[in-house]
């Protein structure tokens, strides 16, 4: 919870989808062991809601937490009854905040470093609950205290380089601490760099000035003494050694030539596992860093084994009979004339307290397993740490899959000071700087570096090979060439094992160890993009040489051999599988050589179109949430299926696009749908005046309408209606009527809208189509609202809401709740409007609907503005703006968000910035690209705040600011708005 909110189980994310549920979970775990009464929690987390509403929200939030937790953990971690809720303090869990809070006052330097290294920023950033603010201050004070203690220890030990590192870290993460600036000045002075001392002091002055204060007498005095040379500093050894190290344990561990990056948590976990088990196997595909992790972990536990840690390298061996000899050679055990060598090794180890590390067991897996079992059985104090692409398969063995290096999300790319905290980025930059001494991470290459590491799945070997190419190519060129990664990444060390000298050789090694049926399935799995379920693998790959019934066993073997990764489930007990992208590229090469690419692609396409059609009706009922998640997780497979369908069969392409319409709308990604439909309509001219073409045009029109591209929507829907009338398909006529009517409404053509909507309603009644009828209720309500018949609009919306709730459609219920909020807001009932908006937001967020969530956020922002809650209003407008930016909805950015932020500036007595932003909004709305118009009620709201700003400035000042705003681009206006509304 420090620097981000993140929950993981077995190193995989646990998604708690709504912010209220996250806040509840955070509060419970931070106070683990304390039982909280339900009414207290409801009142604390939703202080502005009525008691019943708050209790209902608490139940929903608790349900979201339970939904996120695997079924077997719900009662293990959450203790609930009718009156109270608690997080079980006795359950097994780790919390970064607890490690900081429990750090002893007299902890050693290394202990403090270990804990503070996990501190990534303030508690729960982005959470604005009152309890979070208080807890955040408490944790900040602890951090400041521990950091001051660490810097003090460094100064006592004269660890000047550590002070330079940790002092800067403290300044970035802390509250402008003067003590950190003083320590940095002292460290630079000790190193004889007085220019840096002056520079640090100037930074301190500027930093404190932001808070309206001057440096303390202590800081000024230190600077003056250092500048005058009056401060006596010892500039001897960088580290003061307090006591002579004990003689290191006996070891045969290799000494790597390059630095080890990151993996602190992994090392701790390996050490913890070795303390509780006698056989630990680190598994994963080639190039994942199993060997380096084993070396690093073993080095840190040398003193735990009286008789040492001994490394046994198995990669060069080709015969299992040689494994015992390799161990004997490492331990210097000689074969006795009258005794087999394995007996001599057992006799030597029988009384020893010792760790053996078996490196690279996969090609000798049977021999390694047999010998490990024999040694562990006869040598009670022996432990074995093994690295292998496949587990040994012994009773009592703990198998631990080595994770990839941590990587940032590239959308958007994090700030530069944050990027180097990610292990993949750090590794690339360090290795690149070895081969090209002037290489550094910059604003211009940061995104390319992140994308290279992302496409290489965070695999250390692949990243190192890519970094080696900076001698000849820019990072941009490396990124562009990754489609041919096996030819690009061939510059490994000449002294490395042959299979680690090129990326292809690394995977060749694993592929060569497969049986023929395993190889066939392995190459066929390349047809999946982004992962797959067992059902999908059986349906798509189970034909010809492989029977469907064989897939389960073969897939399990590929998982065991680290070529397939098991991921989280889309529903309880349904795991997903995935090939890392580099391994998938290798498998695709094999698939193309098999000559079955086209056949597999068609089977894949057929499977996913059928799946989409099965899911489509589920998106309108009580299983909406689960099916949205199931569709979302297959996003890459939809794209792959589309590419196949559009090239082979337009009928299949239309089926897929139609089935995914609801998904695109609910999860806020209509742009992709429009691209698909545009391509399909180009290719289906031969369909002529058929219901199929009308349907394709209607789907495209609805997506255009959803993005407020009303001109395109009108054109598409008019064509759809014309063709539907010719074809005589009543359902298509009704659908086109309702959406063409809604488009006419948004263009203020009420008479045409009324005629179209009423015709659509009549047809749906004739067809007795309940989904069509409830959709028509919505359109009739919007028509009534547009004509200022608010009571009639409210009645129609309530009918629609009741029906959607009966049908279990939470998405459409959320849309209607937002509309009810609009009706209440424009009637001046902010309290009722806020309740509707909150319910809408909860519905939409629980469904993962990001762009649709922007609408109730806007409504809540206006309500907050009316109440004088300007900071909250600003935060809500900005949150909505980020969502609109994410999906490229320019009209929403300008009309709703920037207009709202201009109003906030006006109400917070910043009239000049407000006038500039209003000028930018007007100019952008006048442009051809932004040819939209305010709704009448929105125009009244806008005019009210616009007038308030004009009233705060004289004519000349207003005109000057207004004219400056009109010159802004959209990007400049957004940057200006965010800067001016910072609080």
Structural class: mainly alpha
State the total count of DSSP E strands. Answer: 13
Q: Which segments are poorly predicted (pLDDT under 50) over 5 or more consecutive residues?
A: 235-249, 492-501, 928-932
Domain count: the total is 7
Mean pLDDT: 85
Radius of gyration: 32 Å
Stated plainly, the CATH topology of the largest domain is called Serine Threonine Protein Phosphatase 5, Tetratricopeptide repeat
CATH class of the largest domain: Mainly Alpha
Task: Assess the beta-strand content as a share of residues.
Answer: 5-15%
Task: List the total number of helices.
Answer: 48
The CATH superfamily of the largest domain is Tetratricopeptide repeat domain
Named CATH architecture of the largest domain: Alpha Horseshoe
Strand order of the largest sheet: 7-8-9-6-10
